[in-house]
Structures are given as C-alpha cells and as structure tokens.
Amino acid sequence: MSPETLQILIAMVAYMLVVVIIGIVFAKRAQQSSSHFFLGGRSLGPWVAAMSAEASDMSGWLLMGLPGVAYWCGIADAAWTAIGLAVGTYFNWLIVAKRLRNYSATSGDSITLPEFFSNRFHEKKKVLLGISAIFILVFFTVYAASCFVTCGKLFSTLFGFSYHSMMIVGALFVIFYTFIGGFLAESVSDFMQGIVMIFALVVVVVTGTVQAGGIDAVLENAKAIPGYFSLTSMATPVTDANNVQQVVNGVPQWGAAGGYGFLTILSTMSWGLGYFGMPQVLLRFMAIRRADELKRSRRIATVWVVVSLFAAVFIGVLGRTLFPVESNLLTSGGAENVFITLSGALLPALFAGVVMAGILAATISSSDSYLLIAASAFAKNIYGGMLKKEASDKMIMRASRIVLIVISLMGMVIAWDENSVIFTIVSFAWAGFGATFGPVMLFSLFWKRINQAGAIAGMLTGGIMVFVWKLCLKPLGGVFGIYELLPAFLLSSLAIVVVSLLTAPPAKEVQEEFEAVKQQG
User: What CATH number did the domain enclosing 84 receive?
Assistant: First the structure.
C-alpha cells in the first residue's frame, strides 16, 4: 500500500472511530425504552432534525449514483431528478412535517410509521399495521443492499481490496453501530455526516473546476458532446458488446443525441413525490422536539438539498472534462466511481481521505436509518403489535436486534453482484416507498373522509403496482417506459378515493381526532 493510500485509509478509519464514539455516547439513552431506541424520545432540535433527515435520505447515491448518471449520459436525467427532489423536499417540510408531528403525538403517541397508520384509523384488527410493516421490510432490505454496494465499490476502488470482503466489512460496521446507538445516535451522527457530505461535494467542485481551467472550459467540453449539456436530450455513449464505451485515438465515442421529451421529464421529476412516503424522513418529522421549530428545519434542509444535489450533478460534468477516457469510468456502473476518481486525483492524500469519508458518511447515515426502521417495523409492529402483544419493552428491543441482523444478511445477498448500479437499486426502493406510503400519508393528514379500507387499498395498489410496472410493463417501452413511481402513485391515490367513497365513512371518534389535529395547524 502506497503512503498516499495509507493516508486516505487513516483519515477514513479516524472518521469511522468518531461515528462509533457517538454511538457509544448515546447508547445508554437508547436503552431507556423502545421510544428512545426507535424515536429518540421526540427530542431532536431543528438542526439535527433537518440535517439528519436529508443525510439519511440521500445515501451513497448522492456522491456516486447521481454524478455517475451525469457522467455517463449528460445532465438531463440527473438534473431533472435533482429538481424533482429539491421541490419534493421543500413541500414535504412545508405541508407534511407539522401536521404529522402533531398527529403522531395525538394519535396514540405513535413512534413508528406503521403504528401511526394503525392508530390514525383506530384499528382493532391490525391490518394496516401488518401491511405497512411488511412493505418497509421489503423495500428497506433493497435500500440497505444499495448502501452495502456503495461500501464495496468505495473500498475496492480505493485500496484494491476484494469487493465482496469490503462489502461485508462495511455491512458489519453499520450493523454494530446501529445495534448499540439507536435512533438518537443515528440522528446526531447523521447531522455530522450531512456536514461532511456537503463539504466533500463543494471541495471537489471547486478544486475540479480550477483544475479544468475554469467554468467556461467545463461547459465548452460538455456542449461539444451531442445532447450532453441539454435538459431536453441525452448523450448516447457508443459501447461495445461488453457495454464499455469505445475510445478511438484517445477520444470517447458518442452517437447521436437521444430524445428526452415532456413525459420523460415529468416521469423523472416524479422522484419528488417519493418524499411523502419516505420513512427515514417522516420519522424526523415525528421526532422533532417542538412543532414550532419545523420552519427553521425546512430552511436548513432545503438549502442543504439544493446545494448538494446540484454539486453532485456538476461533479459528473467535471469528470467528463478531466477524465473522459478513464478505464474504470467507461461503463454505466463504473461511471459511479467518478467522485472517487476526482477526489483521489485532485486532493492531497489525507485531505482526499476526509472527502472520501463523505461517501462513507452518506452510506452510513442511510443504512443505519434503513436497518433501524426496518427492525422497528417488525419488532414493534408485527412482533409486539400482532404476534406477542404482551411482549415487554426489553423483548421488543431484543427482537429488533435479531431482525436487524437478518435484514442485513438479506441485503448482503442482494449486494453480492459487484456490477450492481447503485442508482438503479435506489430508484426502485424509492418508488416503492413513495407509491406505498406517500398517497396514504397525504390523504391521512388532509382528508377526513379517508377510511381504513381506502388506506389499505391505496397501500396495496401502490406497492404492488411498483413491481408490476417495473417488471412487466416498463420493458414494453414507449409510454410504459416512465419511472414506475408516477403511475403507481397516481393509481394508489385513485384507489384511496374510490374505495373510501364506496365504503362507510370513518367512525365519529376518528373524525373528531382529525378535526382536533387540524385545529393545531
């Protein structure tokens, strides 16, 4: 191992030790009760709530997946995704955060998302509780896999270690950290990781732009590639039989620009709809200390997201200027290493290690959230809420740790393919949560007439349609080629309205509780 590589490793190990220390510091508070372990006792301040929500949401795809898309086929796909996410972030904090914080506290002091849905409709038979918990287990297992892929790619690219061994080491670290710290440790470390992530992005953008000869040089290079620097077309790399971009006389080869029409733009921007159903974000709304602090959190979160997303897109464009024929970037999956390549080439080794920790930060901040929420879905809601209602707090927390390990093992199996594209894995899980929980969440908070039957119909329609559209309809192309979140979200909303209106209205006490929360603002 070279001295430069050793310095990078030392910086990253030091960062991981800081994260572990945070977990240990908050471990005692996490063990007080399941409420503290799963929701931090509703004690988050505005800065921690905002930064931890966004850091846990973005994951490794912000520093690897999104720049990779921009590097491979131009800014259209990446930029419209970023715009959709920025708009979705703002409106989620604006219209959902306060109402959910108040409703979750009023409705049985709910500390998990499935518990909120169940309490919202005063369920006697815990149907919604079970359905939502199962969907959380399924989609968060996929999400955790994307984080493990990120760990494997990061360390194998940097240090030449085996992808599989590094993926397993990264997964074990995340399991250990989540195991001891719980939600509060996760949120505090996510706050720190959010700072590291945005620092890493900005540093690479600034140094890369200077190295490329200024912003004009970067833009000129991008505009010279057919369809690359356009919001209404896409660049088309010319690839060989192994899907590797061809290079002739040191010049990467491009085909004619591909179309990027209105329907595709609408489909890509629909990423923003996903926020209304993201458990890792919604839980921060439920956990904030006081509802009146959410306005400040919204401003912090929006600024962080806008800066981070557009820096990530620009890094992909920078990569095409500085490293147009780098061998490890000439496939769609390999392109996701562009941030690593830029950091290693542009920065002093120790400083590069700190920046690389940004990727590790993004991965850890997301995977610990995913594992904790998935474990709580089973332990608190299925085990403690349905299978063993007399289970004590200690039994529930023990069950959550067992489930955490099982989910992690399943995530490792999914992540075993080292050619996995992080952006693709994340997009599927994102669609799953957005369509399964987003419409139900919005109607639950703002429509008094929604009933349990409508919520069940919407949840099942959204979750199942994501699979149907992705696996059966999307391969047909044409209008069916749109991102599965958009049709699944719309069909889920339709199912909620139709079934709710065709069945009996909610009980009087459910409607009275809705009105009481509405009066709180």
Answer: 1.20.1730.10
